[in-house]
Amino acid sequence: DQGGYEQLQAEHTQGVREVLDQLAEHGLRVLRPEQWTPTQRRVLESRFAEEILPVLTPLAIEELSPRPLLPSLQLFVAALIAPAAPIADQDSPAAEAAGLADDNSRGGASGSPAGASDRSSAGGKRRQARSEAPAQSKVQQPIAKLVVVPVPTQCPRFLTLPGENEVCLARMEDVIAAGCGLLFPASSVKATAVFRITRDADVSVDAEDAEDLLREMEEAVLQRRRRAAVRLTISANAHERIKNWLKDWLGLREEEVYEIDGFQDAAALWELAAQPGFDKLRNADWPPQRPRDLIGWDDLWEAVEDHDVLLFHPYESFDPIVELLEQAAADPNVLAIKQTLYRTSGDSPVVRALQRAAQQGKEVTVLVELRARFDEARNISWARRLEDAGCHVIYGVAGLKTHAKALLIVRRQGSRIARYVHLSTGNYNERTARLYSDIGLLTCNRDIAADVAAFFNLLTGCSEAVGWRTLSIAPAGLKQRFLDLIDREIQVSTADKPGLIMAKVNSLQDPDMVRALYRASKAGVKVMLNVRGICCLRPGLKGYSENIEVRSIVDRYLEHARIFYFHNGGHEEVYLSSADWMRRNLERRLEILFPVPDPRHRRRLIDILHTFFADNQKARLLQPDGSYVPAPRKGPKVRAQEVFFRQAVAEVRQSEKAAAEFQPLMKPKD
Q: Between 624 and 110, where is the model more confident?
């Protein structure tokens, strides 16, 4: 509703403003045009003329036919310009001197029209400006036209200004808006505004009817650039003519237009974070550590043969997964590799290892999910390169998006064949593995390996879903498995020994899951949920959800792991999954839920969950009315992510200390 839109706009503006205010306190200031000093303005004018003006391409968007395509999420400066002299007196001096306008002359990027009297109706048609001259004047005012200037994406977002004892910056869009007098020297600039368009990003391809899914996905990705606009953000107090023309041209409703006072692309804050000289404001470095289950092991094959390996990223390094694939590519005993790829990095060592393995003559089968949103183009490129290297590439399963994360390596081990499996909550992406919190499992467990092999046969169309030994697969039974686990917890719960469910997910939206958790609460089961994002369940409702607690943690790393715990009358079970409790995950995607067989790992995951629920620094508690409040800061300070990093460091240091204590004495040299 309109109130929600207004709240979103206000929170966006307030959030960015708080960040900028705090940076200013430490000597890093982003100045608005009205804050520029004369000296700073002269510097910007010189830089504008020499560095920026040559790369600008103004578009007379009202007059061009067909009108140019304005890309999604790019910044633009809109300007209303008119001939500098009235139509009746073309030889009169220009109404406005060329140069960087101050904020009072034409509004700058804030969009406030300074002296412009032409207000258009909602139709967006050009109207003759009303004269500001006295009534007796016969001079006709010129008709203003709308011009759009793309903000160059190859230029920096901020320009450095001279400042005393502080770093002062100007936003590129503000400089362009203020420099329109130089860009249009023969015109009078009536008003300017910064805007950005968001287009529908959905890529819809009927995989069942597609004769060539790869080619159709390529065409669909190209068509995304021309999809309909779904949102327009524009400078607060923008000139009505500019706002209405853009709104009507894009076919948007009033509630789809967001007036923003300040940054329209908060991603620009990343560039601020990279400013040199502010190390004291940056996070302390938390380098990934050697996984505790691999400490003391140099041979990955031997380690996984000996015991299951739990990997907790980014506190523990993702390198062992890359190393395992690289070793598999070079190992003559490796016969086959099968893997799913959903999101990878731009220069993926995982994909390079798969290419080398195929070139070495190994059987390499890769499911590349072409429909991974916003990664379609990258995955299309990788799919072609994998095919060229000799891999068997599958482009997904008709009607379903493959979101499961699975790796199977088949290796000759002496006289027998061994299968090594990696299952994970996160992607095979070494870059996001340093930013996202995920959990993976390396194992040679025969039951799990047999199920993973059957899963890949299912993907390649060589078998149908049958009885699984350990795994649960969506959409064939995973949702029902969750419901059965919840119902079992209800059955074993008693007044003396109430049941307990703990879950960590990104989103909770599936209606059946919500109803099942309500049933559990009413039966006396304690339900503890860590839901980072969307949560369609309301905790603390009398007679419904008094026994449910929901918290969200947003911290340095993106919480991405899915962990599920069921007390089960004391016979505790812990599961990991690629799936959230959302209808799309449980009904329209291929997902995997897998158990954690090793009691040590189950204990560790339970401790991880309890640490999340003890967080009193970054946690927010969901209230019955749908609002969130900070967790009470009672007792010792607990910041879950910091706890996990310090634990990872302590494990490595303890092992190094133990190794030093048992260093054998060698005979001294003569």
A: 624
Q: What share of the chain is helix, strand, coil (3-state, %, to 5)?
A: 35, 25, 40
What residues are paired with 147 via a beta bridge? Answer: 79
Q: What is the homologous superfamily of the domain 2-61+76-126+142-196+228-279 according to CATH?
A: Polyphosphate kinase middle domain (3.30.1840.10)
- In three-state secondary structure terms, 621 is strand
pLDDT at 382: 78
- Concerning whether 560 is annotated as a catalytic residue, the answer is no
**C-alpha distances in Å from residue 590, one per residue of 14, 304, 353, 561:** 40, 26, 25, 17
Q: For residue range 483-540, what is the model confidence (pLDDT) as tens digits?
A: 999 999 999 999 999 999 999 999 999 999 999 999 999 999 999 999 999 999 999 9
Q: Write the DSSP symbol of residue 669.
A: P
CA distance 110 to 477: 54
Say if residues 106 and 192 touch (Cβ distance below 8 Å).
Answer: yes
What b/e sequence results for 599-630 when a residue is b if at least 16 CB atoms lie within 10 Å of its CB, and e otherwise? eebbebbbebbebbbebbebbbbbeeeeeeee
Q: Which of 112, 111, 113, 116 lies closest to 132, judged by CA?
A: 116
CB 616 within 8 A of CB 635: yes
> Of these residues, 403, 560, 567, 601, which one is catalytic?
403
Share of the chain above pLDDT 90, in %: 69
Kindly list the domain boundaries of the chain, sorted by start residue.
2-61+76-126+142-196+228-279, 292-469, 473-644
- Is-contact 597 475, C-beta < 8 A? no
pLDDT at 659: 65
Matching CATH number, 292-469, of 3.30.230.10, 3.30.870.10, 3.30.540.10, 3.90.550.10? 3.30.870.10
Angle, helix 599-614 to helix 640-661, in steps of 10 degrees: 140
Domain 473-644 architecture: 2-Layer Sandwich (3.30)
Q: How many Cα neighbours within 13 Å face the side chain of 665?
A: 2
C-beta separation of 579 from 562 below 8 A:
yes
Cα gap 670→668, rounded to integer Å:
6
Residue 245 has pLDDT above 50, yes or no: yes
Stretch 297-318: mean pLDDT:
97
- Looking at the DSSP bridge assignments, the partners of residue 474 are 591
Residue-level pLDDT at 203: 66
- Whether 547 contacts 489, CB under 8 Å: no
CA distances from 269 to 158, 262, 264 (A): 10, 12, 11
Same fold flag, 292-469 and 473-644: yes
For 134-160, give one letter per residue: b (16+ CB within 10 A) or e.
eeeeeeebbebbbbbbbbeeeeebbbe
Residue the block writes with tokens 């609460």: 521
Cα 135 from Cα 146, distance rounded (Å) = 27
Residues 6+ apart with CB under 8 A from 509: 534, 535, 536, 580, 581, 582, 583
**Tell me: the pLDDT tens digits for 56-106?**
999 999 888 888 889 999 999 999 999 876 544 444 433 334 467 665 444
Quick: pLDDT tens for 530-571. Answer: 999 999 999 999 999 999 999 999 999 999 999 999 999 999
